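User: C-alpha cells for this one?
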Amino acid sequence: MDSNLLRSYFSTVYELPTDAGVLRVSIDGEIVKDVDTLPALLRQRFAILTAYNPRSMLLPRRVNEVRHQVMRDLLILGCYRVEHASGSDEEPEGVWREPAWLVHGIDRDEAIHFGRTFRQNTMIFCRDARPELIVTDTTCDEVGKTFQGNWRVRQ
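Assistant:
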C-alpha cells in the first residue's frame, strides 16, 4: 500500500456516537498502557464501514448515498446495531468528509467481506481496544493484510 495513503488512513479523524456525545478519534496514537482509560466504546468490538467512493473513485453524491443505504440495510438485516459515523481530514480546514457506519459486534471476517463487497480500499476493525486498518481491496494490497493502530482521542 502506498505510504501516503496509509498515513492518511491512520490520521483520519473518526466521529463516533456515544451516550456522552460524539467521540473524535484516530488510530495514529501511542500504545495505550491501560485500556481501562479509553472510552467504553473503544474497548468493544466494532467496525467502521462505508460504501462511499469505491477504490477512492469519486462518485456522484446520489450514487454514494444509495450505496451507503444499501450497506446499512444489509447490516441491519444481519442483525447488527448500526449507527451513523464519519471520517474526515485531520486538518480543521480539510475538505474531505465521508459518512460511515459504526457497526457494533460484527465479526472481523464479515466486516472484511462488507469492505470487499463495496469495493473499499480498507476498513477499521476494533477488538480488545486495538484498532486495525484492514485491506479489503486487492488493488491496494493482499486482502486481510492488517496495519495495527492505537487509539488517539481527539478534542
